[in-house]
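Review session, final week

We close the course with one last complete record, chosen because it touches almost every idea we covered. It is 3-deoxy-D-manno-octulosonate 8-phosphate phosphatase KdsC, a protein from Candidatus Nitrospira nitrosa with 184 residues. Go through it on your own first, then we will talk.
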Amino acid sequence: MASKPTTGKSSRRRPSPDVLKGIRLFATDVDGVLTDAGMYYSESGDEWKKFNTRDGMGIKLLQKAGLITAIVTQERTRLVARRAEKLAIPELHQGVLDKLSVIREMAARHSLSLQQVAYIGDDVNDIEALKAVGFSAAPADGLPQVLKVVDYICRQKGGEGAVRELVEMILLSRDKLKPSNRRR
């Protein structure tokens, strides 16, 4: 499969509903996408992350609509495992250095093509996966080199509703969300 060109084709325009209707697997990075990219530590060394509850509800809505949901992250923490468990995310992949390989493996296991995968990421370790999937996105505050290769740049920042924004676009393309129910 050929990679997408890196000619700076990103935009904030909504993608074709046909592209979104074809998505069967929705994968996301964690730090900088589901969180604000901050790492918080207590004096005793406990790590904290802030997750956006609206993003979490979006993931649940995708699952209800029949999509497979996944987390693919380089970090390996109990916090992420707990969040994935709470949201009943069936595909949790932590400690991943080659995200594209993991996404390819998931797609193959579910008898999907990469064109049926949406992925949202924000940093350089996401670029290869973002270039390969059927629909790619980044939060508004993603790194400039990431924003150059994605299909869609969210209006929302990481940890502030970027995932929910994408979820609503996907659900609207399938008539699974009425426009009047959308967040403003």
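Two points worth writing down before the exam:
The longest strand covers residues 68-72.
Residues 154 and 165 are 7 Å apart (CA to CA).
Good luck, everyone.
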